[in-house]
Amino acid sequence: MAATSANGTRKEKDSIGYKEIPANVYYGIQTARAVENYPISGMRAHPTLIRAFGMVKQAATEANKELGLLDAKQADAIIQAAKEVQEGKWHLVSVENVEPRVAQGKEMGTLPVSPRSGQKGSDL
Q1: Could you tell me which residue, 45 or 97, shows the higher pLDDT?
Q2: Which residues, listed in sequence order, are joined to residue 100 by a DSSP beta bridge?
Q3: Does residue 118 come out as left (phi exceeding 0), alpha (psi in the -120 to 50 range) or beta?
Q4: b or e along 97-119 (b: 16 or more beta carbons within 10 Å of the residue's beta carbon)?
Q5: What is the Cα–Cα distance from 52 to 46, expressed in whole angstroms?
Q6: 72-86 and 47-66 helices, crossing angle to 10°
Q7: Three-state SS sequence of the chain
Q8: What's residue 95's pLDDT?
């Protein structure tokens, strides 16, 4: 992870270039660019949806660990983070942007633009 500057940001780099990211957030440059370039609704995803993302991430990681596709140290770190997402620990720092779907004058729910929330640094 990049070093924190005196102004409370960290500088991250991707294929486009460098960008200052607030030091206190748990997402990286790709998420920051997506939110900046595709502001759809300004709404946050429902906590149940964010919890479900954590459940899927945990299950996928456990499967990949069992298949030998992830080493134990990396898998255990991802599983711990996924559990924290499920417990609601990171909900207030997620940047999910959702688009309301309306049909026949009635809201049908919301769909996520990106399932990448609460990821730090490189936006795994």
Answers
A1: 45
A2: 110
A3: left
A4: bbeeeeeeeeeeebebbbebbbb
A5: 10
A6: 160
A7: CCCECCCCEEEEECCCCEEEEECCCCCCHHHHHHHHHCCCCCECCCHHHHHHHHHHHHHHHHHHHHCCCCCHHHHHHHHHHHHHHHCCCCHHHCCCCEEEEEECCEEEEEEECCCCCCCCCCCC
A8: 62
Check residues 89 and 80 and name the one with the higher pLDDT: 80
The CA-based angle 12-50-28, given to 5 degrees, is 0
Amino acid present at 61? T
The overall pTM is greater than 0.90: no
User: Cα(40)–Cα(100) distance, rounded to whole angstroms?
Assistant: 9
Cα 124 to Cα 61, 107, 117: the distances in Å are 12, 32, 10
Give span(s): CATH 1.10.275.10, the chain. Answer: 41-118
User: Under a CB-based contact definition with an 8 Å cutoff, are residues 25 and 116 in contact?
Assistant: no
pLDDT of residue 27: 82
Q: Does domain 41-118 have CATH number 3.40.50.720?
A: no
pLDDT at 87 over 70: yes
Among all chains, which residue has been given the structure tokens 């990396």?
74
